[in-house]
Amino acid sequence: MKAAIVVFPGTNRERDMAIALRRVTGQAPRMIWHHETDLSGIDLVVLPGGFSYGDYLRCGAMAAHSPIMGAVRDFAAKGGHILGVCNGFQILTESNLLPGALLRNANLRFLSQDCYLRVEVENTPFTRRWKKGDVFRTPLAHGDGNYTADAEALAVLEGEGRVAFRYADAKGRVQADDAGSNPNGSVNSIAGVLSENKRICGMMPHPEDLVDPLMGGEDGLPLFEGLVEALVR
Amino acid sequence: MKVRVTVMLKDGVLDPQGKAIGHALHTLGFEGVQDVRVGKVIELDLHGVKAEEAHEKAGEMARNLLANLVIEDYSVEVVA
């Protein structure tokens, strides 16, 4: 699996992502500056976390119109696999590659903490190493992670099994109006969603930051191991 | 032409900033504040276009970039 990480001005989590990808692929991912437009030979495009373009206008709004995103759209149209984490998720919604939007956290605070995610769907490239209902710990760090979508889009996401992860407590209980288990106030406690073909996944928390015992755990590793399995050539 | 684009969260979308400001106004003793909504005002200086075209162009800019139509509505006003 040859992975590429897109780097925008203001991106700051690309090296964390590179560590996770190197851990499972054994090779360094390609770093792609936002002015580039060539994704040839790439199996997985990753949009990492950070504050692209200083979060000006809306988080991810400017990045969605940068030159590389034209290539990413073509890559998606050809059935390419894309993972967007944190700011990367915001960029994917701003690019209309995923439905919905990320609003300011319900409590208006920047959150930097661990959370628990419940896996909602198995047998996708992003969740195949887990079983439905599995719970894992992952860090999150964002000010605008409050997922929302209109009723119609939500019905489609829920109906088609395109909610990948929900915020939960350590035992896997999901309660959307509980700030303890759903820290940013996301609708239906949604933490990550999938595209119609399940090849694009956006999520606010950072599984790449828990892939080594030295980081305090390997709870996020199954996501990356699963991607390698799914995309092996 | 000077054009003003106002971007507001859609009616059904919760506005926690507006809520916090509403609470603060109550704390300061301003009574009767029912609802507070926070938005953005973007002023554009457009050259070489008349009012009608300026209005149209600003609308196009709003739909493409200035507003996220999933969560926001916009209005355009030619001011000078």
TrEMBL record, chain A:
Annotated EC: 6.3.5.3, 3.5.1.2
Q: Where in the cell is it found?
A: Cytoplasm
* Entry GO CC: cytoplasm
For this protein, the record's SUPFAM superfamilies field holds: Class I glutamine amidotransferase-like
- Hydrolase among keywords: yes
> What is one Pfam family matched by this protein?
GATase_5
Do you know which Gene3D superfamilies this protein is assigned to? 3.40.50.880
Q: Which domain of life is it from?
A: Bacteria
From the UniProt record, which GO molecular function terms apply? ATP binding; glutaminase activity; phosphoribosylformylglycinamidine synthase activity
For this chain's UniProt record, which GO biological process terms are given?
A: 'de novo' IMP biosynthetic process
- List the catalytic activities from the record: N(2)-formyl-N(1)-(5-phospho-beta-D-ribosyl)glycinamide + L-glutamine + ATP + H2O = 2-formamido-N(1)-(5-O-phospho-beta-D-ribosyl)acetamidine + L-glutamate + ADP + phosphate + H(+); L-glutamine + H2O = L-glutamate + NH4(+)
Report the principal subcellular site: cytoplasm
Cited InterPro entries: Class_I_gatase-like (IPR029062), PRibForGlyAmidine_synth_PurQ (IPR010075)
**What UniProt keywords apply to this chain's record, in alphabetical order?**
ATP-binding, Cytoplasm, Glutamine amidotransferase, Hydrolase, Ligase, Nucleotide-binding, Purine biosynthesis
Q: Does the keyword Hydrolase apply?
A: yes
In which pathway is this protein known to take part?
Answer: Purine metabolism; IMP biosynthesis via de novo pathway; 5-amino-1-(5-phospho-D-ribosyl)imidazole from N(2)-formyl-N(1)-(5-phospho-D-ribosyl)glycinamide: step 1/2
What positions does UniProt annotate as the active site of this protein? 86 (nucleophile), 206, 208
Query: What is this protein for, i.e. what is its function?
Result: Part of the phosphoribosylformylglycinamidine synthase complex involved in the purines biosynthetic pathway. Catalyzes the ATP-dependent conversion of formylglycinamide ribonucleotide (FGAR) and glutamine to yield formylglycinamidine ribonucleotide (FGAM) and glutamate. The FGAM synthase complex is composed of three subunits. PurQ produces an ammonia molecule by converting glutamine to glutamate. PurL transfers the ammonia molecule to FGAR to form FGAM in an ATP-dependent manner.
Subunit: Part of the FGAM synthase complex composed of 1 PurL, 1 PurQ and 2 PurS subunits.
HAMAP family cross-referenced by the UniProt entry: PurQ
UniProt protein name: Phosphoribosylformylglycinamidine synthase subunit PurQ
**Which organism is this protein's natural source?**
Acetobacter okinawensis
From TrEMBL, chain B:
Entry's Gene Ontology BP terms: 'de novo' IMP biosynthetic process
Q: Name one GO molecular function term.
A: phosphoribosylformylglycinamidine synthase activity
Mainly localized where? Answer: cytoplasm
Q: Which SUPFAM superfamilies match?
A: PurS-like (SSF82697)
Q: Where in the cell is it found?
A: Cytoplasm
**Its biological purpose:** Part of the phosphoribosylformylglycinamidine synthase complex involved in the purines biosynthetic pathway. Catalyzes the ATP-dependent conversion of formylglycinamide ribonucleotide (FGAR) and glutamine to yield formylglycinamidine ribonucleotide (FGAM) and glutamate. The FGAM synthase complex is composed of three subunits. PurQ produces an ammonia molecule by converting glutamine to glutamate. PurL transfers the ammonia molecule to FGAR to form FGAM in an ATP-dependent manner.
By sequence similarity, the record places it as follows: Belongs to the PurS family.
- What is the name of the protein in this document? Phosphoribosylformylglycinamidine synthase subunit PurS
Organism this protein belongs to: Acetobacter okinawensis
